[in-house]
Amino acid sequence: RGEMAKSTQLIDNEVFRAYATYTAIVLLKMMLMSLVTAYFRLTRKAFANPEDTASFGKGESAKKYLRTDPDVERVRRGHLNDLENIVPFVGIGLLYALSGPELSTALLHFRIFTGARILHTFAYLIPLPQPGRGLSWAVGYSVTFSMAYKVLKTAWLL
């Protein structure tokens, strides 16, 4: 503990395995948001591209499906928020996992972030009243910031 992991030992490193597990969970969750967006587009018949309306008619009759829908836009905003928060977690989490944290501390970071992102998705899609969504975002963001601080402290001896 406390020393940088060697790349040949990563698969044997419990912290790295925990990182890989929770990263896979949040990335899969983010990928599922694409399917949820597609579901909402199809059920609400609200498309962004003319070629996507071909199943519903041709010419002028299809143009009415080129529109925005509040439910589709809500899902898209949730997905965009995932991109803005999960991508930094993936990069910073990797550096954090390689910085030699205690397994229990790393698991706490990874689990809290994962739970916060799942809660954030439900809060966005249901929608739950504020401050639920805002708090779940803030918790996940704080976890990523905490890991970044640990990486900088370890790497730069802050």
TrEMBL record:
<comment type="function">
    <text>Conjugation of reduced glutathione to a wide number of exogenous and endogenous hydrophobic electrophiles.</text>
</comment>
<keyword id="KW-0808">Transferase</keyword>
<comment type="similarity">
    <text>Belongs to the MAPEG family.</text>
</comment>
<feature type="transmembrane region" description="Helical">
    <location>
        <begin position="20"/>
        <end position="40"/>
    </location>
</feature>
<dbReference type="GO" id="GO:0005789">
    <property type="term" value="C:endoplasmic reticulum membrane"/>
</dbReference>
<keyword id="KW-0256">Endoplasmic reticulum</keyword>
<dbReference type="InterPro" id="IPR023352">
    <property type="entry name" value="MAPEG-like_dom_sf"/>
</dbReference>
<dbReference type="InterPro" id="IPR040162">
    <property type="entry name" value="MGST1-like"/>
</dbReference>
<keyword id="KW-1000">Mitochondrion outer membrane</keyword>
<keyword id="KW-0812">Transmembrane</keyword>
<keyword id="KW-0472">Membrane</keyword>
<dbReference type="GO" id="GO:0005741">
    <property type="term" value="C:mitochondrial outer membrane"/>
</dbReference>
<keyword id="KW-1133">Transmembrane helix</keyword>
<dbReference type="Pfam" id="PF01124">
    <property type="entry name" value="MAPEG"/>
</dbReference>
<dbReference type="GO" id="GO:0004364">
    <property type="term" value="F:glutathione transferase activity"/>
</dbReference>
<protein>
    <recommendedName>
        <fullName>Microsomal glutathione S-transferase 1</fullName>
        <ecNumber>2.5.1.18</ecNumber>
    </recommendedName>
</protein>
<comment type="subunit">
    <text>Homotrimer; The trimer binds only one molecule of glutathione.</text>
</comment>
<keyword id="KW-0496">Mitochondrion</keyword>
<keyword id="KW-0007">Acetylation</keyword>
<dbReference type="InterPro" id="IPR001129">
    <property type="entry name" value="Membr-assoc_MAPEG"/>
</dbReference>
